[in-house]
């Protein structure tokens, strides 16, 4: 069936490992044969034990201890070491010809934006016949500060341009900004106009408004957000803000899919977007329904 994988990237603490664990349990529950591949030499704990783990090749701790590197230099050293030992990775991945792989990557964004390391790893995966989908995670906290949000959009765009693979951006930790995003109850039938129901409706309206506001950030129209950014920066930077916003507008290719890990529909929606990007499942032979098979046996 061809080889498929997700490369889960994003800034430190953006929820990559949690995303991977969420995808692992979702895929397992839907009978997809899935494995976790860890590319973070500094990782300490996983909810699912990785099947392939860079720490079997090299760990950040050893590099820092033996070569006296700091954490960031050490991490780059580890990944360059991986690049010099790609036959190790190829062999480790060799046993999973038809399975679905999820790669958990480190949180140093320079790996995606200007170091050629991740790009080289992507090229190798493609050479080994993997259809690779880049999944760039940005956490919902980024939308609370517009300047931070723009820098997040630029980093996502930079990764997209640098890696040149099918790519989706995910806004993680949506449960923190909107308790039940995308899961709002419909108005109950026959709801009377008493005090408690009025309160309930007011609550719903407040949430709907928030949802609408949030949507501005999923499919950004930066020209609409520029005033907010300018109000937080000195006039000296307004021309620069305008130029950055114009750049984002000109590329018009950064959009985010919200993910609330507490909502199964939301997880499913993100996964179906990834599947779509790499055409996962299009070449699966339709299976005979179990009921039909039993009927035939009789
Ligand atoms: N509420 C909430 N917390 C989350 C979510 N995803 C991650 N977190 C928390 O955010 C923190 C960082 O999550 P990780 O999944 O370790 O993030 P990461 O991107 O793998 O971090 P690094 O590997 O260190 O770059 C942890 O404390 C998580 O519990 C989420 O969807 N909702
Ligand atoms: Mg992690």
Automatic annotation (TrEMBL):
Coiled coil: none annotated. Residues 181-211 are annotated as: Disordered. Pfam families: ATP_bind_1. InterPro entries: Gpn, Gpn3, P-loop_NTPase. One of its GO terms (molecular function) is GTPase activity. Residues 197-210 have a biased composition (Basic residues). Keywords: GTP-binding, Hydrolase, Nucleotide-binding. Belongs to the GPN-loop GTPase family. Binds to RNA polymerase II (RNAPII). Small GTPase required for proper nuclear import of RNA polymerase II and III (RNAPII and RNAPIII). May act at an RNAP assembly step prior to nuclear import. This is GPN-loop GTPase 3. It comes from Umbelopsis ramanniana AG.
């Amino acid at each position: 069936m061809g080889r498929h994988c997700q490369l889960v990237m994003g800034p430190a603490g953006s929820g990559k490992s949690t995303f991977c664990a969420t995808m692992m349990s979702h895929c397992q529950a839907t009978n997809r044969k899935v494995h976790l591949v860890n590319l973070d030499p500094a990782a300490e704990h996983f909810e699912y034990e990785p099947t392939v783990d860079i720490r079997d090749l090299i760990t950040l701790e050893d590099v820092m201890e033996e070569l006296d590197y700091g954490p960031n230099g050490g991490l780059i050293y580890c990944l360059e070491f991986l690049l010099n030992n790609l036959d190790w990775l190829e062999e480790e991945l060799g046993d999973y010809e038809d399975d679905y792989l999820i790669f958990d990557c480190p949180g140093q964004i320079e790996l995606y934006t200007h170091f050629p390391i991740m790009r080289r790893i992507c090229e190798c995966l493609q050479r080994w016949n993997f259809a690779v989908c880049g999944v760039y995670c940005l956490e919902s906290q980024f939308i609370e500060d517009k300047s931070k949000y723009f820098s997040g959009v630029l980093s996502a765009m930079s990764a997209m341009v640098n890696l040149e693979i099918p790519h989706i951006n995910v806004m993680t930790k949506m449960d923190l900004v909107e308790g039940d995003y995308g899961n709002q109850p419909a108005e109950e039938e026959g709801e009377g106009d008493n005090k408690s129901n009025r309160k309930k409706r007011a609550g719903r309206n407040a949430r709907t408004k928030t949802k609408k506001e949030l949507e501005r950030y999923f499919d950004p129209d930066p020209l609409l957000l520029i005033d907010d950014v300018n109000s937080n920066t000195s006039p000296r930077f307004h021309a620069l803000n305008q130029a950055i916003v114009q750049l984002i507008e000109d590329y018009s290719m950064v959009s985010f899919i919200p993910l609330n890990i507490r909502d199964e529909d939301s997880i499913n929606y993100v996964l179906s977007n990834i599947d779509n990007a790499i055409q996962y499942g299009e070449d699966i032979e339709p299976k005979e329904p179990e009921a039909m098979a039993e009927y035939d046996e009789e």
